[in-house]
Amino acid sequence: MVDITVRVNGGTRTGSVEARKTLADFLREDLDLTGTHTGCEHGVCGACTVIVDGRAVRSCLMLAVQAAGSEVTTIEGLAPDGAMSTLQEAMWDSHSFQCGFCTPGFVMQASAFLKAHPEAGEQQIREALSGNICRCTGYQSIIDGVLLAAERNRQG
Amino acid sequence: MKLPSVEYEAPATVAAAVDLLAEHQDEASVLAGGQSLIPLLALRLARPALLIDINGLQELSGVSASNGWVAVGAMTREHVAEDSKTIADSVPLLAAALPLIGHEAIRNRGTIGGSLAHADPAAELPAVARALDAEFVVRGRSGERVIPAAEWFEGYLTTSRRADELLAEVRFPAAAPGTGVAFHEVARRHGDFAIVGLAASLTLSGGTISDARLAFAGISDVPVRASGAEDLLRGEIPSAELFDQAARRATEDIDPPADLHGSSEYRKKVAAALVRRGLQAAAENADERQ
């Protein structure tokens, strides 16, 4: 077992993990942050996307021991005091979800992307979300939600 | 899928990593970005006893240019290479291929050295390395060895790196003035592995082709250079007819694998179309760079 200390959603968290444990399982099982979903568990579906040191990564393709010393943001960290972020609000308004399983991954991916590319248009947003799979919506309402968030961010 | 039990070491220096490889040989796998190795572990396609995590080895990250070559550290993440001005200016073919690798979240972790050491024949970087005659710098206990791309790729997911060697750096030749490039691929979905991919580079001097480089991804167990077509192009003036001939020459000897994504015949047709389109695009941007 390896002892690790990770910054998660602004707080310092510690754990003792087997080397083989993925960051996704560490978040879900050890920290009870079950908002991060595991779908394919081999890097194809994007459901487990979290933000590590400012960049969207697949938490099923990173070991928990590799996150030691890093700053991790999960879906739980986007609305720390219960108030939804602009992105979450815009996706709510655009009916961007159906069953909701893929949602945390889409929201984290879009969140990191909009922060880095506030001027992004529809094509860039489609490209940025191309690694996340949704089996319900047909994607259009997700794109609409992220576009709406980008507009609202720009209007301040 | 959960990963199988595995020991884990995160050496602090390249020398320590090399010592671990020397000690554990085939029993160890080197963990770089993990975007291919972790799925292999999850699927039990790789069962190493030890993971040697080289993410802490800062000396293996970075891009530098000297004497007509651009050296890319093996741990350089793909998103860093994608944003590198040195690569954009001096190795445009690599710059063209990078955005096609996986998806943004994959490129945020994935590394140049990791992809090339994994050596998936359908991936983008092996075709680029093969087209450009890149050089692979590996380190072992007895020192450094430089392996040309033509000798690096030995088979499906197999390279000439020995079990006790660590891939430290990949060197790409800087493009000559008048070089135009294209990386084109056909995939079922953007970001998926290519059904067929093509790395193309053309150098024009005074209106004629002085250098031509073509390498396919996805048509064999290694990336494949189309040397016959390159010879046919050299010394000629770019034209649609010439590119059509090159496409026929490049694909007459290939025997691509068939799978559920496409028959061998289909892959051959796609390969020919990519040669025509790739050469056209490369010729157009060579004009712009002259």
Number of domains of chain B: 3
- The CATH architecture designation of the largest domain in chain B is 2-Layer Sandwich
Q: How would you classify the helix and strand content of chain B by structural class?
A: alpha+beta
How big a fraction of the residues of chain A is strand?
Answer: 15-25%
The greatest interface between two protein chains, and residues involved on each side, is: A-B, 28 and 31 residues
What overall geometry of chain A do the principal axes of the alpha carbons give?
Answer: globular
- Report the count of strand segments of chain B: 14
CATH class of the largest domain in chain B: Alpha Beta
Summarize model confidence as the mean pLDDT of chain B. Answer: 96
Biggest sheet, spatial arrangement of strands of chain B:
4-5-10-6-7
- Give the proportion of residues in helices of chain A: 25-40%
- Are there runs of chain A of 5+ residues with pLDDT below 50, and where? none
Tell me what you see in this structure.
The complex is a heterodimer of chains A (156) and B (290). Chain A folds into two domains: 2-78, Ubiquitin-like (UB roll); 86-155, [2Fe-2S]-binding domain (DNA polymerase, domain 1, Orthogonal Bundle), CATH 1.10.150. Helices cover 34% and strands 16% of the residues of chain A. Chain A contains five helices and five strands. In chain A, strands 2-1-5-3-4 form a five-stranded mixed beta sheet, sandwiched between helices. In chain A, α2 packs across α5. The radius of gyration of chain A is 15 Å and the shape is globular. Chain B is of the alpha+beta class and 290 residues long. Chain B folds into three domains: 7-53, Uridine Diphospho-n-acetylenolpyruvylglucosamine Reductase, domain 2, CATH 3.30.43; 60-173, Uridine Diphospho-n-acetylenolpyruvylglucosamine Reductase, domain 3 (2-Layer Sandwich), CATH 3.30.465.10; 179-289, Enolase-like, domain 1, CATH 3.30.390. A five-stranded antiparallel beta sheet of chain B has the order 4-5-10-6-7. In chain B, strands 11-12-13-14 form a four-stranded antiparallel beta sheet. Chain B starts with 6 loop residues before the first strand and ends with a helix. The model of chain B has no long low-confidence stretch (mean pLDDT 96). Chain A binds chain B through residues 2, 18-22, 25, 41-43, 46, 49, 55-58, 60-63, 65-66, 109, 113, 127-128, 130-131, and chain B through 1-8, 10, 31, 34-35, 38-39, 41-43, 51, 53, 55, 79, 102-106, 108-109, 189-191.
